[in-house]
């Protein structure tokens, strides 16, 4: 829903903002899936871990939710000039939300993120650096002119926040479970993080692929690489994730049944990409982002199932 008039009061304005830009009905379950995936995969890597996974899942899911919200809020201020020129109906450029609303919300979110880790103080050893990295992203790593002009350099400096989030969740899982950090098998953890990163990387590419008639001054990967090159980059990353998942199935004792939803999602992706390449109209281009999101969720749910779930 888009509110056409500014509403009085900070809470009302931010309620409308969240409905439009960060809907809780979608973002809370997504954060829970990401947090659960990271925790259960880490417990799989650790081997025999005492205690229940729920405390670590709760903390990591909250950290993911708050970190992604903070990134969303930061993007509002980082991209305000672009939004005013090209996306005037969004909450901030339209005036339905004010800049100080966003800044206050950033402060509250950052405080909540740090506060969530207080019960396990050692988890702050990675929570604080992760927060610092998001702040560097907000400041465009102090080279805004360079990064704004180069989409690929911007991708190279900003997208690593995703594996850093997964690694923070892995460290937090170790802290909450009371396991020894030396028990982490990096030969398993590193490819697992790469597997999960690959599908999120592909989502970042897919959401900036457009139909030729929809291209404008907003720089997209389909502009820079052509629609074939952009699709190849996204689908290649998703193929890497599927390949790594398959390796885990055959080398780490995961059930082959976990491959079924992955195979179905992968086949669906291939169909959607093919249809877009054959006839790149707006309706087909708009399917690429949700398809990439669904594939990422299918990957993570498959990992959760392969690692035994929350039982």
Describe the protein's architecture and organization:
The chain has 311 residues and is mostly helical. It has two domains: 9-184, UbiA prenyltransferase (Tetracycline Repressor, domain 2, Orthogonal Bundle); 186-311, Four Helix Bundle (Hemerythrin (Met), subunit A). The chain contains 15 helices and no strands. The chain is globular and about 55 Å long.
The total count of helices amounts to 15
Shape: globular
Give the total of beta strands.
Answer: 0
The main sheet comes to:
none
Helix and strand pattern: HHHHHHHHHHHHHHH
Structurally, how many domains make up the residues? Answer: 2
Quick structural overview:
This protein is an all-alpha fold and 311 residues long. Helices cover 73% and strands 0% of the residues. It has two domains: 9-184, Tetracycline Repressor, domain 2; 186-311, Four Helix Bundle (Hemerythrin (Met), subunit A).
List key phrases describing it.
0% strand, mainly alpha, Tetracycline Repressor, domain 2, 311 residues, 73% helix, 2 domains
Helix/strand layout:
Layout (H helix, E strand, L loop, with lengths): L9 H12 L2 H23 L7 H25 L1 H7 L4 H4 L4 H17 L8 H15 L5 H5 L2 H8 L2 H17 L8 H21 L14 H31 L7 H20 L3 H4 L2 H19 L5
Helix pairs in contact: 2-3, 2-10, 2-11, 2-15, 3-6, 3-7, 3-10, 7-10, 10-11, 11-12, 11-15, 12-13, 12-15, 13-15
């Amino acid at each position: 829903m888009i509110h056409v008039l500014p509403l009085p009061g900070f809470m009302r304005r931010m309620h409308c903002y969240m409905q439009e830009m960060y809907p809780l009905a979608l973002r809370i379950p997504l954060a829970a899936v990401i947090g659960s995936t990271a925790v259960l995969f880490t417990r799989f890597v650790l081997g025999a871990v005492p205690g229940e996974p729920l405390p670590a899942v709760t903390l990591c899911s909250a950290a993911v939710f708050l970190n992604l919200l903070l990134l969303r809020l930061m993007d509002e201020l980082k991209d305000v000039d672009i939004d005013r020129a090209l996306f005037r109906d969004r909450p901030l450029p339209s005036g339905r939300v004010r800049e100080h609303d966003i800044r206050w919300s950033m402060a509250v979110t950052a405080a909540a993120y740090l506060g969530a880790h207080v019960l396990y103080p050692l988890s702050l050893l990675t929570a604080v650096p992760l927060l610092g990295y998001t702040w560097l992203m907000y400041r465009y790593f102090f080279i805004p002119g360079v990064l704004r002009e180069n989409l690929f350099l911007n991708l190279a400096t900003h997208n690593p926040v995703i594996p850093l989030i997964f690694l923070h969740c892995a460290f937090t899982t170790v802290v909450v479970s009371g396991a020894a950090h030396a028990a982490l098998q990096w030969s398993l953890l590193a490819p697992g993080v790469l597997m999960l990163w690959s599908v999120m990387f592909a989502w970042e590419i897919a959401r900036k692929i457009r139909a030729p008639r929809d291209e404008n001054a907003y720089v997209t990967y389909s502009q820079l690489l052509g629609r074939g090159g952009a699709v190849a980059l996204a689908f290649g990353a998703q193929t890497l994730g599927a390949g790594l998942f398959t390796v885990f199935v055959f080398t780490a004792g995961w059930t082959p049944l976990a491959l079924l939803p992955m195979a179905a999602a992968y086949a669906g992706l291939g169909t959607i990409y093919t249809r877009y390449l054959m006839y790149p109209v707006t309706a087909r281009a708009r399917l690429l982002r949700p398809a990439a999101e669904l594939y990422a969720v299918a990957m993570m749910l498959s990992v959760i199932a392969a690692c035994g779930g929350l039982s």
